[in-house]
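We give this protein:

***
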Amino acid sequence: MAQDESWGARYRWHDASQDFRLLIGFHASMLVLFAVGRFLPWAFEVTCVAILALIACGASLHRRRARAWHWPGVGRAGVLRACAASLLGLFFLGAAAQLGQTFSPELFPWFAAACALILFNVLTSLKFVCMGEAEFAACCGSAPRASPPAVHEVQESPQRFPAGWRRVVGNAYGAVFVVLWIAGVGFFWVFNAALRDAPHSPTPERTATLYSHGVTAYITPAKKHTIDTLQEVLLIGVPIVLLLGAGLQFGAGIRVFDRVKPAHLARAARTGSRPS
């Protein structure tokens, strides 16, 4: 029976595209800058980030030119995903900016890494970059192609769940994960904003206490209730979602953590052979 095995097949590192590997390298560099940022001037960090970004862009453009890459185009769904990624990214950066130290040497590498990830997600939705090498290779050649080839006739060992149900369950899990992520970002937004604006002594309107790193601030009971509710959602939801995801990924064989199409499946679909 023909089925889409991209939701249950094993993912290997070389299946990742060069663009995704460059993103990982950029994030690793930002991690180093983040660790030593307090000892470096802000201008030096900006210069490092700019040089690394130019190197990554140059390497990606050079490979595209060498492989005769063509943009496959994007439909309405891709544009909507790009808009959603942009809005969620701005929401995330807005929550982090409540700290009021966006351009400090200690936090600038972290913000640079976050911006790179948001940009990558937007470009992926618009199909300017790819997560998987098979998707990239499908858009290379002397003539443009409408879209990367889909896996239709790959015969594999019987799966515990039909391919259609694996896709439905995976998408449902992704939706729950996004809702929990929004709740988490909302918690940090409200918490940081309240801590930044709150006085350090009680007032008639601000009687509820808020603690953070040895600092005590006073906020209104209503805002305290909102913060406590979001915190409870995270304390309960994060372990449940992670355990559920691990069960789906490793127990039921439903891909929820990595959805890069394995290159050996795409290659098998093109050649009509069995996947290795």
Q: What stands out?
A: The radius of gyration is 23 Å.
